[in-house]
Amino acid sequence: MRAGFASDPDRARGRLVPEEESSFRSCFMRDRDRIIHASAFRRLKHKTQVFVEHEGDNYRTRLTHSIEVAQVARTIAGALGLNPELTEAVALAHDLGHTPFGHTGEDALHEMMLPYGGFDHNAQAIRIVTNLERHYAEFDGLNLTWETLEAIAKHNGPVTGELPWALAECNTGFDLELHTHASAEAQVAALSDDIAYNNHDLHDGLRAGLFTDDEIAELPIVGACYAEVDRMYPDTDAYRRRHEALRRVFGVMVSDVIDTSRALLAGSGAESVEDVRLLGYPVVQFSPQLWAQLKVIRKFLFTRMYRAPSVMVKRAEVSKVVEELFPIYLNDPKQMPARWHADIEAAGDETALARIVSDYIAGMTDRFALQDHARLTGSDPARV
């Protein structure tokens, strides 16, 4: 049963370009479906999560990560009486704006874009769904509902101060009330992101040999889960033991968010989605105890995985790819495919042109960026 503070598709604020709604799908279901069918969503299958996409077939990519986030988000939304379709749409869209090579590529592109307003992957996701997906006859982008756009823009909380240019551009035409918190559905998507990567990065790091089961069994939450598996299945093999332990870690995080958020929502007095936006604090949270434990896990992952020597070598290599592609395209934009040429010709100044180049590079998959870099520089992509 849907709670009073859930987002109601029948009371949605509409789309920037009015459309006749479907007779068999709610507006949020339609948003979710448009995201799934977007070109940018398909490209996530060849974009880095932590490991560069071609380093192994079993590591998470941005696509599999987004699917895992959506699964967690639907579960939590259902338990809290929220709208599962809006929650799922946000979860599936939250990483659309990521560059090739994950946060490494984003950092490199941001450096290149500093003279032109910088680059932010959350704002780029908004740019994709409001402008860069150009498949529909009546509008650019996906023409998503106000609620879905708001949730993508604000799922990590209110956006204040100087806005990223891509977000400011959208907000001028469709005020997303960036100073408030987003709906509870958006907040669920944000914490589901944390749950998914905290869990699967442990799994991928183990697979890569960056640390051992014994080492992560020293971590809070994780150690108790390994101990429970050892009690229940003392003779199981190492791979099953690992999987059983980490699925329990997943369960601990999900259960904690559900229990904590139920209490926060009940105590908030919120009776509508507008009440949730105006509370001034998020109502979907981890408990303070679990959050403290997750900080220990995140510190471990940062040191042993995200900044592992082998990962840092690869970071330097792929940063060079982005750093060298950007000036090539800026100085000779006709190197970009023909469908970009109309935008190039309409660019009024270097900043507008740089932002088009940024859009193009940000949309690349890992392997396309490597191939294009090899084509334009004569380098060997196998050495990157």
From TrEMBL:
Domain called HD: residue spans:
62-198
Give the PROSITE patterns listed for this entry: HD (PS51831)
Query: What is the annotated signal peptide range for this record?
Result: none
Does the keyword section mention Hydrolase?
yes
User: Would I find Hydrolase among this entry's keywords?
Assistant: yes
Q: Which Gene3D superfamilies does the record cross-reference, listed alphabetically?
A: Hypothetical protein af1432
Q: Annotated Gene Ontology MF terms?
A: triphosphoric monoester hydrolase activity
- Entries under Pfam families matching the protein: HD (PF01966), HD_assoc (PF13286)
Q: Which domain of life is it from?
A: Bacteria
SUPFAM superfamilies the UniProt entry points to: HD-domain/PDEase-like
Q: Which UniProt keywords are given for this protein, alphabetically ordered?
A: Hydrolase
Known HAMAP family for this protein?
dGTPase_type2
Which PANTHER family does this one have?
BIS(5'-NUCLEOSYL)-TETRAPHOSPHATASE, SYMMETRICAL, SLR1885 PROTEIN
Q: What is this protein called?
A: Deoxyguanosinetriphosphate triphosphohydrolase-like protein
